[in-house]
């Protein structure tokens, strides 16, 4: 992204900053880290069309989460026509997967940090949260994505490789039981790459909160457990024990993992 696509009102605000393209993330948006001597670093996220909608979703959720759990502080936001720009303060720390790459022995610290954060997030007052992200709503969105050919079947987990999107959707719908679902405030994409922490395991912020909303807790549990199981089945068991889930509901776990494949 070049300077000329910035909102006009931001020209003075960002004068003198150096721009560094950040390739992390899978949202499809353009992300830059902005640095300037003597000033705090900033992150700028930009997108058009469907990505702009995702930027808007993230902006409003970041505002709501302030003071509830550690997240980046929104500095400025513009939603204009078919485009959206979100400027946030940089957050210190490394993601869980970055810490693992740096030092695999950090795994127990990472598990404890992710478990503590998730318990805090899921304890936020549901009645105060204006964002719905429940399974019925997500299933409806998944059906639209399948019909529009927007599902990346090449990104399916190993046990679903070779499946087409219609088969994945049918399998997911067969696992769905609305009577098994509860309501808590969820992150929506609670993976090892979406939580920042320091070397002591102190969580400094969570990333990519655009799917945050009220949903079943297994929406978050299933995604992180899938990440951890790829590393070591014992890591998954340790995380479940840390969040107080002695006997996980495997049907809910499978449903939410399969549902996530469609996004």
From TrEMBL:
<protein>
    <recommendedName>
        <fullName>Aminoglycoside 3'-phosphotransferase</fullName>
        <ecNumber>2.7.1.95</ecNumber>
    </recommendedName>
</protein>
<feature type="binding site">
    <location>
        <position position="208"/>
    </location>
    <ligand>
        <name>Mg(2+)</name>
    </ligand>
</feature>
<dbReference type="Pfam" id="PF01636">
    <property type="entry name" value="APH"/>
</dbReference>
<dbReference type="InterPro" id="IPR002575">
    <property type="entry name" value="Aminoglycoside_PTrfase"/>
</dbReference>
<dbReference type="GO" id="GO:0005524">
    <property type="term" value="F:ATP binding"/>
</dbReference>
<keyword id="KW-0547">Nucleotide-binding</keyword>
<keyword id="KW-0479">Metal-binding</keyword>
<dbReference type="InterPro" id="IPR011009">
    <property type="entry name" value="Kinase-like_dom_sf"/>
</dbReference>
<keyword id="KW-0067">ATP-binding</keyword>
<keyword id="KW-0460">Magnesium</keyword>
<keyword id="KW-0046">Antibiotic resistance</keyword>
<feature type="domain" description="Aminoglycoside phosphotransferase">
    <location>
        <begin position="23"/>
        <end position="255"/>
    </location>
</feature>
<dbReference type="InterPro" id="IPR024165">
    <property type="entry name" value="Kan/Strep_kinase"/>
</dbReference>
<feature type="active site" description="Proton acceptor">
    <location>
        <position position="189"/>
    </location>
</feature>
<keyword id="KW-0418">Kinase</keyword>
<dbReference type="GO" id="GO:0046677">
    <property type="term" value="P:response to antibiotic"/>
</dbReference>
<dbReference type="GO" id="GO:0046872">
    <property type="term" value="F:metal ion binding"/>
</dbReference>
<keyword id="KW-0808">Transferase</keyword>
<dbReference type="GO" id="GO:0008910">
    <property type="term" value="F:kanamycin kinase activity"/>
</dbReference>
<feature type="binding site">
    <location>
        <position position="194"/>
    </location>
    <ligand>
        <name>Mg(2+)</name>
    </ligand>
</feature>
<comment type="similarity">
    <text>Belongs to the aminoglycoside phosphotransferase family.</text>
</comment>
<dbReference type="InterPro" id="IPR051678">
    <property type="entry name" value="AGP_Transferase"/>
</dbReference>
């Amino acid at each position: 992204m070049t300077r000329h696509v910035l909102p006009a009102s931001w020209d003075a605000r960002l004068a003198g900053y150096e721009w560094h393209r950040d390739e992390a993330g899978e949202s499809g948006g353009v992300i830059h880290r902005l640095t300037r001597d003597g000033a705090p670093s900033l992150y700028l996220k930009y997108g058009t069309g469907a990505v702009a909608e995702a930027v808007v979703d993230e902006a409003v959720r970041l505002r709501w989460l302030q003071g509830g759990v550690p997240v980046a502080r929104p500095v400025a936001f513009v939603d204009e026509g078919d485009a959206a720009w979100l400027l946030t303060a940089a957050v210190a720390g490394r993601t869980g997967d970055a810490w693992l790459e740096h030092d695999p022995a950090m795994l127990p610290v990472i598990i404890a940090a992710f478990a503590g954060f998730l318990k805090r997030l899921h304890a936020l007052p549901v009645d105060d949260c204006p964002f719905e992200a429940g399974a019925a709503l997500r299933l409806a969105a998944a059906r639209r994505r399948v019909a529009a050919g927007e599902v990346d079947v090449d990104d399916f987990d190993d046990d679903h490789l070779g499946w087409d999107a219609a088969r994945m959707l049918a399998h997911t719908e067969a696992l769905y039981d609305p009577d098994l679902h509860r309501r808590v405030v969820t992150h929506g994409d609670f993976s090892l790459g979406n939580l920042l922490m320091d070397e002591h395991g102190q969580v400094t912020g969570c990333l990519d909160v655009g799917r945050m909303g009220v949903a079943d807790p297994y929406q978050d549990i299933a995604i992180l457990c899938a990440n951890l199981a790829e590393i070591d089945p014992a890591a998954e068991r340790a995380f479940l024990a840390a969040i107080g889930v002695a006997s996980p509901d495997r049907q809910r776990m499978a449903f939410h993992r399969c549902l996530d494949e469609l996004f």
